[in-house]
Amino acid sequence: MQKLLIIFTLLVLVSCKKESQEPFGKPQQTADSTTIKSPEIVGKEIFENKGNCIACHLPDKKLIGPSLHDIAKIYKDKNADMVAFLKGDGEPIVDPNQYEVMKTNFAITEEMSDEELQALEAYIYFNLK
Ligand code: HEC
Questions:
Q1: pTM (2 decimals)?
Q2: Which domains, ranges and CATH numbers included, belong to the chain?
Q3: What pLDDT score was predicted for residue 129?
Q4: E strand spans, the chain
């Protein structure tokens, strides 16, 4: 019984130690790209996978939708709110004639968190270069 108690105490000590050391361990993790990713990289992943935006948008060429470069340029010039647009709260400013096609994606983007939409925006702006 006493042995068990000692083991238990040791376990508690070890787990406390780990927790209190965490803040000091964090800065080292920045070097590891799998733990901390920039919004552009997160956005690219959403763009190509979950969002399936890549089916219609290429970085620098018009496909079914305008290129990301064109979208980024127009949004920057007009200082427009891309996150609001993707929530269905904005007006189309890039190619209003084709708005109906883009609109079908709001079913996906409206389910996304603000962080995900901001990551998508960051990735689209990343293509401005
Ligand atoms: C079925 C094809 C298709 C898919 C998939 C698609 N888009 Fe589009 N997108 C379009 C078309 C067409 C336009 C041009 C119409 C317009 O400007 O609204 C457009 C326009 C846009 C615009 C500019 C809107 C504006 O103000 O005019 C943004 C931003 C955008 N898409 C982001 C996305 C994102 C993010 C995704 C993935 C979640 C996505 N699109 C998926 C076809 C698509």
A1: 0.80
A2: 39-126 (1.10.760.10)
A3: 74
A4: none
